[in-house]
Amino acid sequence: MNINKLISQNLPIRLLPNESKIPWNDADFSQRMLENHLSQEHDWASRKLAVIERQVDWLCSQLAPGAQVLDLGCGPGFYTQLLAKRGFCCTGVDFSPASITYAQQQAQAAGLDIDYQLLDVRSYRPTKKFDFIMMTFGELNVFSAADAKSLLKDCANWLTPNGKLLVEVHSFDEVKRQGQTEPSWQRHSQGLFLDAPHLLLTEHAWDEALQTSSTLFWVIEENGKVTRFGSRMQAWQDGEYLQLLNECGFNKIQRIDTAVWPSSNTFEGKLYTLMACSKA
């Protein structure tokens, strides 16, 4: 695509069928994202380690010794590695190749037996049951309503009787705010989408009927080449989260206090955490 086609694009933006998520599974993109996960200078990609350690301390108080733990969207394995060091049996699933490779290397270096799977969490099919499943950092909201329901039903089936699910979600207002954000330009000598000088135009749209927020990233190179990336987030009202979990096989749903599960500076007031038990 060239700049002329970009200029002629109609508003509001509309994503293509393959643009629901940014390319986490692209090798180069995932490597650049990993660098942001590992950074302790910001917390927009992963939480700072001091916050994760506080969260893991609390998780340990909720789990029986040696519990089987599954982290869906585990990234570079920050939670699984700390939990494995505490004696829990951990499995992590993510479809970022750089993050999974890094997690595997860290586990091997520490002498930890952690099962890491390079997969889209929607394709994961475990051969064992888990006592605890976690899905953090608003991971659930990047899936369509249908995919979110299917994944939560799978989680209920993967848990032992009265097993627990911890899911961290975006508030409805936050997803809507993102969809209504004004367009912005940024200049990059190198960035997340391209390891070369470029301009990045970011545009947003909110669909009231579908309760979805769409974001379109236009990467414009020095030679005028334009590449587009898109992502979509599903918004849920507080009551809809509770109904969703109940319909998917969970009960005893509670909202976790931010004193024990802080959301980080960047996402304060934008994310919150629910924990529920499987009905089986």
TrEMBL record:
Q: What is the lineage of its organism?
A: Bacteria, Pseudomonadati, Pseudomonadota, Gammaproteobacteria, Alteromonadales
The protein's name is: Class I SAM-dependent methyltransferase
Gene3D superfamilies documented for this protein: S-adenosyl-L-methionine-dependent methyltransferases, Vaccinia Virus protein VP39
Q: Could you tell me the superkingdom of the organism this chain comes from?
A: Bacteria
Keyword terms of this UniProt record? Methyltransferase, Transferase
Report domain Methyltransferase positions: 69-163
A GO MF term: methyltransferase activity
Q: Do you know which InterPro entries this protein is assigned to? A: Methyltransf_25, SAM-dependent_MTases_sf
Q: Which GO terms describe its biological process?
A: methylation
